[in-house]
Amino acid sequence: MTDAVSAGERAHFAALEGLYAAAPINRLFASRLEVVGPGLSRIHFDVDERVYHAAGAAHGTIYFKMLDDAAFYAANTLVSDRFLLTTAFNLLLTRPVRAGPLIAEGRWVSGRRRVLVGDARLIDSDGEEVARGTGTFMRSHIPLSSLPGYSG
């Protein structure tokens, strides 16, 4: 993070990382959120045979989960009071993924009021893009401060 990031933003980013870590779904998909800065996030995770489909590569579920999370959290870095909800998400799967570390890089694209747009790309251990996605996210009525793990 740059020096231009305020203490309040740093606290919000750390709280988002705590919120991500506390989500029950991440017991099934071991992963870690890194908030890089305003409008930027990364999800770090490893793929192994537990998430393979019958042909021996990662099931599309893992692509969606990690790309959606990365784009979602990139957008939620810009919203400090409310939890966002995914309203649509489009995927482009370009290469099969097998065992190894992956990073989903999320980026806020536009919007700040009611609806935000974010995109993400999935990068394998060779630095190759294997998928990308774009999502729209809407402010909910759920205060972030009411959610387990968020302590901003």
Automatic annotation (TrEMBL):
Residues 56-131 form the Thioesterase domain. The keyword Hydrolase applies. InterPro entries: HotDog_dom_sf, PAAI_dom, Thioestr_dom. The keyword Hydrolase applies. Pfam families: 4HBT. This is PaaI family thioesterase. NCBIfam families: unchar_dom_1. The lineage of its organism: Bacteria, Pseudomonadati, Pseudomonadota, Alphaproteobacteria, Sphingomonadales. Keywords: Hydrolase.
